[in-house]
Amino acid sequence: MTTQATPPENILIVGGGSAGWMTASIFLQSLGASGSKITLIESANIPSIGVGEGTTPLFKRFLNFLNIPEAEFMTACKATFKLGINFPGWTSSEEFETYFHPFAAPGHNQYEQDFFNNCHLRRQGQFPNTNSSDYFFNSELAAQSKAPHGPPPSDSNATDYAYHFDTALLAVFLKKRCIEQGINYVSDDVSDVVLKDNGDISHIISAENGDIAADLFIDCTGFRRLLIGKMPDTDTLSYKPRLFNDSASVIRTAVHDNVDFPPLTESRAMKCGWAWRIPIGSKISWGYVHSADYTSQEDAEQELRDLIGEDAVDIPALHIKLQTGRVSKHWNNNCLAIGLSQGFIEPLEATALALTQFTINRFVTHFSRGDYQATYRDHFNDIINEAFDCTVDYIQLHYKLNSREDSAYWRDCRANENITDTQRAVLAGWDDTSVDFISVLKEQVHRSSYAPYSWYCILAGMGRFNEVGKSKPRSEMVNPYNDEVSSFYDHRQYLNKLNNH
Questions:
Q1: CB–CB of 342/228 below 8 Å?
Q2: Domain tally for the chain?
Q3: 452-461 and 112-123 helices cross at what angle (nearest 10)?
Q4: 3-state secondary structure 125-188
Q5: Contact 67, 155 (CB under 8 A)
Q6: Omega within 30 of 0 (cis) for the link into 153
Q7: Do 62 and 138 sit in the same domain of this protein?
Q8: Cα(50)–Cα(352) distance, rounded to whole angstroms?
Q9: Residue 45: Cβ-neighbour burial (10 angstroms; 0-12, 13-18, 19+)
Q10: Are residues 376 and 431 in the same domain?
Q11: pLDDT one-digit tens code per residue, 430-455
Q12: Which of 37, 60, 78, 82 is catalytic?
């Protein structure tokens, strides 16, 4: 006779915010549905770090899993659509002044191979069009400032897209849903964490509710790492040698009728870092991500204000310190770290919530597969560490490929040799015109969350060609999806329609 495995009786999530409430939402629908009692404790005295967030297309799956209607989420969280990222100013080349990294469109990928072929020809010294904006469906949607929705027979499932939204509103939205679904909610401060002799957490001590015990503890306390920081042998790997940025200055401006409201993130290179521009509801979020080793907080703020112009006058800036790196064991003893408590890369490419979601999903899978024991704990940690490190490989490539000469920051980023063997192999494979680059990618980055077209976009978009300097204009062409995209709904009008319902 076999006994059916059951999940832990009590699970305690410590910390709210986007990480805590995303965890609670998924746990309620998975572990909670199997019998676990889910409790979340958060402090009313600790502000959220979130200032406005971009996501990846993985977030669509989060909404689908929870059966949350897109319109309901977008209205509640002041969300806008995100079809990709524009990167102006990362090179000194007039030809490669900017490039666009679109999200994939599985139902509209018939011109992807043409893009690959032309990149190969350009690597060999010819001059075909290698502008990613001229080949991809989402590039044309973004260029025409369209929403990823159109009249029938258009199908939004044929394209991947993401969202921009206010993370504080996301936490409020998910919190309300979780409380309605029966989560045990506690508003209190954690004053101590008590361990057993074997290193497991026995209970936490709260200021007003006393001891709270559980079988499994989830650390969503951000950079404070109140729980995972107590676990034995939890080392932290810093990404600072590879990614110099450790600070961000943020300003939110109002949206006027004449303000551009594109369905994309702009990541503009600045003197000592880069600045995001993200449309969120009635605001535009601006943030200058920079390194304190190369510029002061005051100079960074002024540079951001100069970029924004008059709209930033009299609006105070928020200054944030970033900790780039990850823990070595995200699941350690009976504690799991989620969100900033497990690690953070940097805002470029907006991977934070994607890694949070990836971690939650993989934990639920491995935990249940192992009969709710630690059977696959080491394997899980290896997978999450690889996800973080592979993401850093792609993000660091932006800095390594820059060709700016206006500051020591950019020269040092380009000269930085703290790169991985994977990055070296990718660059060497691209530079060697006799090599089939697709084969290089299949060998080197098959575990990366970035598909082959993403690597082509960044290498071609940053002008990594042997003949750079022998300036020759790229040939002009019209995106083949131009006519189809023209029938899609205007981005801003679509959002206004949602908000007026």
A1: yes
A2: 3
A3: 40
A4: CCCCCCCHHHCCHHHHHHHCCECCCCCCCCCHHHCCCEEEECHHHHHHHHHHHHHHCCCEEEEC
A5: no
A6: yes
A7: yes
A8: 11
A9: exposed
A10: no
A11: 999 999 999 999 999 988 999 999 99
A12: 82
CA separation for the pair 282, 75 (Å, rounded): 12
pLDDT score of 114: 96
Same domain, yes or no, for 219 and 256?
A: no
Q: 366 — alpha (psi -120 to 50), left (phi > 0) or beta?
A: alpha
How does DSSP assign 306-318, residue by residue? HHH-GGGTTPPPE
We report the CATH number of the domain holding residue 351 as: 3.50.50.60
Same domain, 219 and 367: yes
- Sequence letter at residue 457: C
Q: What is the pTM of this model?
A: 0.95
* Cα–Cα distance measured from residue 164 to residue 257, given in angstroms and rounded to the nearest whole number: 19
> Confidence class of residue 1 from pLDDT cuts 50, 70 and 90?
very low
Range list of β-strands (E), 199-263:
201-206, 210-213, 216-219, 236-238, 247-254
Q: Which domain holds residue 24?
A: 10-49+166-238+324-391
The H or E element spanning position 265 is strand 265-270
The C-alpha atoms of residue 469 and residue 488 are separated, in whole angstroms, by 39
Report the DSSP beta bridge partners of residue 217: 12, 335
* Token duo for residue 91: 């090179």
- The verdict on whether 82 is a catalytic residue reads yes
